[in-house]
Amino acid sequence: MNVKLNNWQNFMLNAGFHCMVLGMIGVLALIFISQIACAQKKETVYLLFKDNNPVNCIKIESKSPKRDDTLRVKYEGYMRNHGNISRPSYVICMEKFLLAKGSKIEKINASEINKLNIVDFDYFIKRRFETNKVTKSSVFYKIYFLEKINDNEYMKYEVYWNQSVHNRGI
After folding, report:
1. Confidence of residue 168 (pLDDT cuts 50, 70, 90)
2. Fewer CB within 10 Å of terminal CB in the chain, N or C?
3. Is 125 helix (H, G, I), strand (E, B) or coil?
4. Shortest CA distance to 145 belongs to which of 86, 94, 105, 85?
5. What is the pTM of this model?
């Protein structure tokens, strides 16, 4: 069955097709831009790690999906180095951090510290609740621990936020 279309019908058919294609391109562009915007929000942070140093901690008393302040209990905890030479692990307020795969320990000068985005552990907790990410390792782009060697040098190494020890952390 051959149907002959007049010029107006051909024009409308082509215009509809082109509008559909442009609409799909627009949707794909919006998805791409939103992905870039979300990725740019993730930041690289640095934490001054000192073994046995006291820190402020927050623990969730309920497994409720609601994350309101009534479920948070503040307590004092400590930074601990629980690992060994081949596989170091770090625990802060019952939160476990592991050395990132392929991470190399670097020495940096104390003068470089001021150029870094240094945060305290409270900031980790705040960002965890704000971002509401499914996994803790997706809250930040990269996490580095800095340990003071002497007045002039620090060790810098990348870690990832692995899990809560005994499921008691945030």
Report:
1. very low
2. N
3. helix
4. 105
5. 0.65
